[in-house]
Amino acid sequence: MMRTTTATTTTTTLWRPTGPEELALVATSGWVAWPPRLPEQPIFYPVLNEDYAIRIARDWNVPASGSGYVTRFEVDSAFLERYPVRQAGGETILELWVPAEELDEFNRHIVGRIEVIREFHA
Asked: At 65, which CATH number?
């Protein structure tokens, strides 16, 4: 989904399923950046549709950590062109794979704030 936020910047809506620890770090950033990846997390993967994010938050994050959250945020579309869309399963299981070392730059291209739009609890 794309929408124009200013006369010169077109953004793409992305979603990110997350657990409580990562969400707390996003809150610490003022809701404007994703935290650095852990050593065992070589990529940051936002997803391209809300339904897929819901499934991960509900079916994976809740059993793993007791809570799962779906976040939504906008990123400069021109910047995102460097990341090919990856199909991680069925037709609607679509992700972007952002290498951990590029996350700071990715964060600089977020437009506006990261918002929690759904939450699930055990």
From this structure: 3.20.170
